[in-house]
Write a structure and sequence with these properties.
Elements lengths: L1 H33 L6 H43 L4
């Protein structure tokens, strides 16, 4: 149980670093591309909405990759158990 929790904690930490690392260039590029002003609240809402959509797509992709690895791991475990010598 502890190993699973620490693995998930490491995954959460890694994902937070990735998300923060994505947000800094994202905010710079969207500001340069669309000429947004940091003092306008509507521009912050546009940035927040766009980044939220971006995170939603990223989350869906990450979920698909996670499910792929879970399914292939179970299939591989079944195949390995099938070929284990019986005692």
């Amino acid at each position: 149980m502890f190993l699973i929790m620490s693995k998930n904690l490491d995954l959460v930490k890694t994902l937070l670093i990735i998300i923060i690392g994505m947000f800094i260039p994202f905010i710079g590029s969207i500001t340069l591309t669309y000429g947004l002003d940091f003092t306008d609240v509507n521009d912050w809402l546009k940035i927040g909405y766009t980044f939220s959509c971006f995170l939603l797509i990223f989350g869906i992709e990450l979920l698909m990759v996670y499910l792929y690895f879970v399914v292939t791991s179970k299939i591989a475990s079944q195949k390995i158990d099938k070929y284990k010598p019986k005692k």
